[in-house]
Amino acid sequence: MVGGRGGAGRRQERQALMVAFALALLMGTAVYFRIWARQSSDPSFTVDDREELRRQFEQANLEAMDESAEWRMKYDKEFEKNKQLQDELSKVKASLTGTARRLELLKKDNEMWKRQTESLKQQCNCSLPLKTTKD
């Protein structure tokens, strides 16, 4: 990638995603164990209550997975746009570099032509001014 963000940048992004995933997994497990501990210690919870809590937990888990998938899709789209913009930027930079080189060559040529013109004027000893084009 442009700007030195090659493998190291991607590795950092993957590590950050893995840390976030591990943290979410740990938090989900903690919530599950807390619910389980509360159900085990509270005799007023019936089997129906436990099933209802399990359904709610599964529903919340599915919603969280859907939201995670949405955010991942958004991230992927933004990442792809960023990649395209980086590619365009590198092309523009390459073009500008080529143009700058060409400009330097043209300046050198211009200086050479000026020196040759002055040399020819001196050799000619002409009193008539030479017609030149305006820059």
Automatic annotation (TrEMBL):
<keyword id="KW-0175">Coiled coil</keyword>
<keyword id="KW-0472">Membrane</keyword>
<keyword id="KW-1133">Transmembrane helix</keyword>
<feature type="coiled-coil region">
    <location>
        <begin position="50"/>
        <end position="123"/>
    </location>
</feature>
<keyword id="KW-0812">Transmembrane</keyword>
<protein>
    <submittedName>
        <fullName>Uncharacterized protein</fullName>
    </submittedName>
</protein>
<feature type="transmembrane region" description="Helical">
    <location>
        <begin position="16"/>
        <end position="37"/>
    </location>
</feature>
